[in-house]
Amino acid sequence: MYPSRIDQWVVWGLRFLGVASCALVGLILLFLVADSIPALRTLGDRLIHDDSWHPSEHATDGTFGMLPIVIGSLTVTLGSILIAAPLGLASAIFCHFYAPPMLAGFYRRMVELLAGIPSVVFGFWGLAVLAPMISTLLRPPGHSMLAGILVVALMILPTIALISETALAAVPRSHIAGAAALGMGRWSIIRSIVLPSARAGIFTAMILGIARAVGETMAVVMVCGNIVRVPGSVFDSVRTLTANIALEMGYSVGMHRSALFVSGLLLLFTAIALTTIIGIVEHRSKDREGGAHV
Amino acid sequence: MRSLSLITCSLIAALALALSGCGEEKSGLKTSGDSGSGFSGTLRLAGSSTLAPLAVEIGKRFEKAHPEVRVEVQTGGSSRGIADARKGSVEVGMSSRDMKESEKDGLKQWVVAMDGVCFLVHKSNPVKELTREQLVGIYMGKIKSWSEVGGHDAEIVCINRADGRSELELVTSFFGIKPVDIHADLVAGENQQGIKMVATDKNAITYMSVGASEYEANAGTEIALLPLDGIASSVANVTNGTYPLSRPLLYITVSEPTKMTQAFIDFSQSKDVHDLVEEFSYVPIQN
Questions:
Q1: Most buried in the list A277, B17, B112, B252, measured by CB within 10 Å?
Q2: Burial track A85-118 (b if 16+ CB lie within 10 A, e otherwise)
């Protein structure tokens, strides 16, 4: 058996496609950096120190304080992961260990359906239902950090639930059977056997959830209120980095446009950092497993 | 083996498709014109960033009709548009304000579209009119309750528009305030979002292009267009020039533009681009 001509074609074709997709990411980074440079060079630390965000075409007659926007992104992400992580994990545990098979199957389909709803639909629901509800029940104007956190939490919930469940399913049955044979109850098995061994997978689920929360745009633009200000409470309006780009990119020129590219660059770096963390965690857990088996 | 060659075939087909796509795009630029217009060369535009995005789209459509013509659009502000048109460094200057007396000499202006902005409240809001002072007060954060302007005792939810949008620019220059002076509760991006925000909040107020607002109100959305200085906010009043919060979007040229420039201006004023004008929420001019 020697590799046929066609195999060679396929191999080279796949190599080419592989390199092309890597190059694409590289090119995106390159363009982002190139377009950010005017702002980074001219504005420099004004991007942090300016006391408001009133950008304009020229560096001299605008203010470019981006810090409240970065804080906005961080708080919305943090809030949504705090809500979605326990719910997602609980839903995975329920689905895998407690629910009867029929219910589990149905439940899983529902979660998958939730994952498939386009973000603009979530945003529309938030704008038409959630924000007015917060406005009447709690505090006007309703378009607020709270609305953003709730909508984003709902959006990342399926990501966390589905990936956590895959991690739970990957725990060897022998571990669970062994623990059961020792007379451990279902909850103690989950707590002291399953969760620790599925830790890396669950962690990956959280990070992917965070990544989606950071990158979420349409829904956030529609419900967060978009005022550039460090929020004093969850009822205050916030603007996130993604929302900032979506709101202003179409109308920006000169320095304003370049400052928006800096927003994009920050987002890409966040994504890179999160991917790196996932890589490290997976690597470590593999090392540990390898050690255990030897 | 058979399945492998199937994969190969599809891969090659995909690649071929992608490559042919590229090829077509490139050759598209070089195809010689078959429209018989005979125009060729580059048409340069510079000026108002309000008009520029619309001019880019009009330019694309013009290039399609005249394949040998390239339309290049740059921004830089109305003053630059007028100055560049005079210097001759561009064929067409773009301006979102009328020329000053000192600038008019030897230049000609052509209206491409009208830009009008009106204030919107929820349909159920008892306030049916606001004066200029009241509007400025609301947007500068001095008037906080509807009861101060004759409405219910409820907090005003003041909605601003995103930085860089022409509505913001027009409103601030009309009232003689700066974007920095505005203290709003919320910021809306696209028109649809602003309309939805007002339609779902009984205490909200925002401002928006007259064209988009009138269309939505006629479509039954729960919004009311406030008149300004006693003049109803309507496309008709923008067109006939009586509505105060409006401005023409202009092309500026030397008094005798070339045939190609004239063709571009005529095209920009024709019905062929009315859909583009409306897409940018401006009001098309009526010939």
A1: B252
A2: bebbbebbbebbeebeeeebeeebeebeebeeee
Using a CB–CB cutoff of 8 Å, tell me whether B155 touches chain A.
yes
Q: What is the mean pLDDT of residues B198-222?
A: 90
Same domain, B120 and B90: no
**CATH (one of 3.40.50.720, 3.30.360.10, 1.10.3720.10, 3.40.640.10) for A69-293:** 1.10.3720.10
Note whether A225 contacts B: Cβ–Cβ < 8 A.
yes
Q: Residue A187 — pLDDT band, cuts 50, 70, 90?
A: very high
Candidates B204, B199, B190; CA nearest to B161 is B190
How close, in Å, is residue B197 to chain A by CA atoms?
7
Q: By C-alpha distance, which of B137, B206, B180 is closest to A225?
A: B206
Residue B158 lies in a domain: yes
Is the pLDDT score of B36 beyond 80? no
pLDDT tens-digit readout, B85-105: 998 899 999 988 778 787 888
| Record: contact A127-B185, CB cut-off 8 A | no
Q: Which residue range is the domain that position B122 belongs to?
A: 116-246
Give the model confidence (pLDDT) of A149-165 as tens digits. Answer: 999 999 999 999 999 99
In this prediction, the answer to ipTM > 0.90 reads no
Task: Return the residue in A8, A226, A229 with the most chain B beta carbons within 10 A, the one to mutate for interface testing.
Answer: A226
Q: What is the pLDDT of residue A283?
A: 85
Same-domain status, B126 and B90: no
For the domain that residue B130 is a member of, what is the CATH number?
3.40.190.10
Put simply, the answer to whether A226 touches B197 (Cβ < 8 Å) is: no
Claim to verify: residue B75 and residue B130 sit in the same structural domain = no
Residue with tokens 């005003």: B156
Residues of chain B with C-beta less than 8 angstroms from the C-beta of A128? 196, 200
Contact indicator for A141, A225 with CB cutoff of 8 Å: yes
* Higher-pLDDT residue of B243, B169: B243
Closest CB from B77, B164, B204 relative to A256:
B164
Question: What does pLDDT average to over chain B?
Answer: 84
pTM for this predicted structure: 0.77
The answer to whether the CB of B140 falls within 8 A of the CB of B172 is no
What does the pLDDT average to over A93-98? 93
Q: Mutation test of the interface with chain B: which of A8, A120, A223, A247, choosing the one with the most B Cβ atoms within 10 A?
A: A247
The residue among B156, B118, B125, B116 whose CA lies nearest residue B140 is B156
Domain residue spans of chain A? 69-293
